[in-house]
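Could you help me review a protein record that somebody else here produced? This is what I was given.
***
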Amino acid sequence: MMDIGALLQCLRPHVTTTTHRRLSRITLALLMMTGRITMLGISRWAGTGGSYRTVQRLFSTVLPWALLFWVFFRQHVDCPADVYCVAGDEVIVTTAGPHTHGLDRFFSSLYGKPVPGLAFFTLSLVSVQKRRAFPMRIEQVVRSDAEKAASKAQAAAKKPKGAQATRRPGRPKGSKNTPKAAATLTPELVRITGMLTALLHLIATVLSVTSLVLDGHFGHHHALQMARQCGLHLISKLRYDAALSFPSTGPYAGRGPRRQ
């Protein structure tokens, strides 16, 4: 059996002795227990010194989790020879209860539809050589009224209305290209930008990352601008209707319009 206390010794300068003792007992219980994780289940697996009240006290304690994750990563995981990139993703936990903080309807890829539950957005450091991810920042997604309104407006804009419902497929005749250099970030991207900026500031003196990996939900121009504002390159899946082509570099044929 691994010595959890020895692994967590690196966290001693950043937490109190009581918190460190509680964290060691509860961490060991989490690694051993099976099934759904609840505070009652943790107290039953923690044994002596891990009562239900002790578990409640730990979860009600405000801890610098981002700093603790980073200190543990530096001490036990970091390899100077590896190349790391930042990856972000959202996980949905189905739950119910009118008094649950942040309870809302979020789209779940497992169910293929919006479900009531909680959402958590995570930023991780991914080792390219080891192909492993190490969570660094985890925050619960609590959507504001502005974010909900923007989501509803985006969904309404996708529905065809009037003449657009019977319009022929393809680009309308006479439409012109418009510059997309300036982009206004949505409330969702503003929230992710804050998390990303804090993470980059924390690891700046040790690691130098250049890539941000996100899923297909962020495969658009606004997410690209968010990544560039943070000094990163976006790696994502393009939308199904993305039609990109390289600019023409060949010589002009002398007749007809110039190739674009």
